[in-house]
Amino acid sequence: MSLKTSALCLLCLALLSSGCATYSRKGLEPAVATQIEKTSIRRNFAPSDELRRQILALNPEHVTDKEVRGVLGRAPAPRIINIHGGIYPVHRRMISFSEFLMGMGYPGTSITNPGDGTYTFSCYESSDMIAGVIAWYYEREGLRPMIIGHSQGGMQAVKVLDKLAGPPSRKLHLWNPLTWQEEQSCEFVDPLTGKPRPVVGLQLPYVSSVGAGGLTRLLPNQWDMCNKLRDVPDSVEEFTGFYKGKDLLGGDYLGYGSANCFHATDKAIVRNVCLPSSYKHGAIPDTRHLLKSQQIMDWINDYRPTNKPLDTPRPELKFDADSDHILWAADVWYSIKKHWVLELQRLLRASPPREGKS
User: Fold this and answer.
1) What does the pLDDT read at residue 43?
2) Cα-based distances in Å from 329 to 67, 196, 338
3) Pairwise CA distance, residues 84 & 154, whole Å
4) Residue 45, Cα to own-chain centre: how many angstroms?
5) Is the whole model's pTM more than 0.85, yes or no?
6) In whole angstroms, what is the distance from residue 186 CA to residue 181 CA?
7) What domain range is 284 assigned to?
């Protein structure tokens, strides 16, 4: 390695190690937390027969804006676990993405942490804690959460999947996101079966990672993922990995080549998407501006990814407003809509309507 390259690496590591974007979590008083859990978290989704039929009739591969706002908007949505990267103020980019999702019709209550009003988790927060929070939410909400990770947050997303994947002897405790305290139990009641099960072994419907790798592999909090960052276990059904060229911070070999591609260790469905090199690593989740153009929103709602293991989408249409990061936003929004439908259908099929219910 040349002296110039070594100096550049040291400079980047210094930048990555300073100005951390993290939270100082302060939990609610137990009585307040219990009240919020009862009134705002625990769900007993009992749709009318008409709404049930409409949800079960939806095609998860083709969800229109009308169906989002007219059908899905009348039902609960899976919890979104956004994990932002490590350099301040990168968390604001993930907040922008949260606002984009809400503008596209996703319920804000399924994005916001109810204990403190935040929209994201930090990549420096414990992966054990995030896994425990996910199981805590699933037990109470009946829909399995999804994870969207950016930069080091993308590495943390894979780390959470690795923790959930086992081995069975591993113990993961439930974590309460209202008190931000670890609970004693390593089991939760599966809302679909009513039976207790360990946190380890929980499978999520969808997880994505963008800009994970590169120099961030050298940070101490990521050392345990260096040799398995691209390995996607069966603790997720569908995973999408995004990368871009000319990415020193989040791309291996500057974001070029197969070294940036994720692959399944067994049965998980894994796609890889190569984004334009012009996208800025730290700004990719910054997507709130896409809501300013109806043309752009229509394009995003009509977007359909290919079934290729490696996709390189490029829109042919010229847009009437700023369309930066549209490809990432459209691909992630497609998958979120798809699994929103699938999770609701899974819940409804596990709870058939009572006879005589109108």
Assistant:
1) 79
2) 19, 36, 14
3) 8
4) 23
5) yes
6) 13
7) 13-350
Domain assignment of residue 206, yes or no: yes
Whether residue 6 is contained in a domain is answered as no
Q: Which amino acid, one-letter code, is at 60? A: P
Position 103 scores a pLDDT of 98
**% of the chain at pLDDT higher than 90:** 80
**Stretch 143-155: mean pLDDT:** 97
Q: Which residues pair with 281 in a beta bridge?
A: none
Residue-level pLDDT at 355 = 59
Mind giving me the DSSP string for 40-85? II-------HHHHHHHHH--TTS--HHHHHHTGGGS--PPEEEEE-
Q: Which residues contact 241 (CB under 8 A, 6 or more apart)?
A: 154, 208, 209, 210, 212, 230, 232, 260, 261, 262, 270, 271, 272, 273
Residue (of 65, 80, 74) closest to 332 by Cα position = 80
pLDDT tens digits, one per residue of 33-68: 999 998 888 878 999 999 999 999 999 999 999 999
Which residue carries 């009992």 as its tokens?
A: 46
- Total tally of structural domains belonging to the chain: 1
**Helical (H) or strand (E) element with 336:** helix 326-350
CA dist., res. 346 & res. 222, Å (int) = 35
For 34, the enclosing helix (H) or strand (E) is: helix 30-36
* Domain assignment present for 179: yes
Tokens representing 73 are 């908007």
What average pLDDT does the chain have?
A: 91
**What is the H or E stretch that residue 160 is in?**
helix 152-164
> Residue 166 phi/psi, 5° resolution?
110, -165
Residue 38 in tokens: 């009862």
Contact 68, 302 (CB under 8 A): no
Q: What are 344's two structure tokens?
A: 């609701």
What is d(CA 238, CA 140) in angstroms, rounded to the nearest whole number? 23
Looking at the domain assignment, is residue 8 inside a domain? no
Please, what is the end-to-end C-alpha distance for the chain in angstroms?
72
**What amino acid occupies position 119?**
Y
Residue 92 in tokens: 């604001």
Tokens of 84: 């932002």
The two tokens of residue 338 are 């798809």
